[in-house]
Amino acid sequence: ENNIKAATVQGSHNAMVSDALTTALFNCKDDTERISLIQKIEKEYQLDLAYSWFIQTGNEKGKLMVSEDFHKQIIEESISDHVEKVEVIK
Question: Per-block average pLDDT, block size 10, for the chain (90 residues)?
């Protein structure tokens, strides 16, 4: 089951790329497929993207997956109480 609840993609490029990729992430079956898709887009269009997604793992709690660039942009204290774990994607 795909429990992704939110996704964000940022970069210094056309906003339509971010919108399309964010939507596509919801249609991926798992994290491996999401990471592969992002890497393909980055390579094909020579982009450096910052991205994250939240996967609900239980009673309003979940796991926040973040790229290194996105992790640098957020402050640990700003993460919601609903996030049980943060994993940085390298």
Answer: 83 82 93 95 89 87 88 68 79
Residues in the chain: 90
Closest to 41 measured CA to CA, from 21, 23, 26: 21
Give percent helix, percent strand, percent coil of the chain, each to the nearest 5: 40, 35, 25
Euclidean distance between the first and final Cα of the chain, in Å?
24
The pTM for the full model equals 0.77
Please choose, from the candidates 31, 5, 27, the residue with its C-alpha nearest in 3D space to the C-alpha of residue 39. Answer: 31
Tell me how far CA of residue 22 lies from CA of 4, 14, 84, in angstroms: 11, 13, 23
**Single-letter code of the amino acid located at 17:** V
